[in-house]
Amino acid sequence: MKLSQSFLTSLKVAVLFAAMGGFATAADKDPKKEVGIFIDKKDDWITVKADGEDEPVKYVVDRTEKKLQEAFKTVFNASRVQVTYTTNGDTRKLTGIKRQVLKATGTITGDVVKVHNDFWVEVKPKTGVADAFAPGENYKDQNFMAKLKGLQEGDSVTITYYTDFERHRIKTMKVNPPKK
After folding, report:
1. How confident is the model over 7-31, as pLDDT tens digits?
2. Which interval of the chain is the signal sequence (predicted)?
3. Domains in the chain and their CATH numbers?
């Protein structure tokens, strides 16, 4: 009888252990996905601000991986992307990245979230997700660039845009009167 109780206890522990997924490990090999705005990149990392988040997150990049080398030929900062990654502790390792163009041309009215690098603006419409817009042919227009650089968080803007091989490009930008 004593042997049977010991065996049953061991069996219960084994079943409970298996149900809980075994030992937790620091590395999570199951890929995860995020969608957001590609903010910045360096040789061995990128940052992406995921939809609904306030701050960008760093993803480490193994530039020797051929799949990533090819992907980086078609993605640029100031554009929406979908990233695939695995985790190891708090580190996110990028395993894939691709552009996400929600709409190739159009007009958007929304609030300025931030002007990045005095070059492009992140805009959040009343409904939907934030997107990134960079100057197009108006890049050499000093008045336009001064207006872009002078935007403040919360300013309401209306932007007409098109999308080229890199990102959304601003055709026209109007700063709307402050909300009352």
Report:
1. 555 555 454 444 444 444 456 678 9
2. 1-26
3. 27-99 (2.40.50.320), 106-175 (2.40.50.1010)
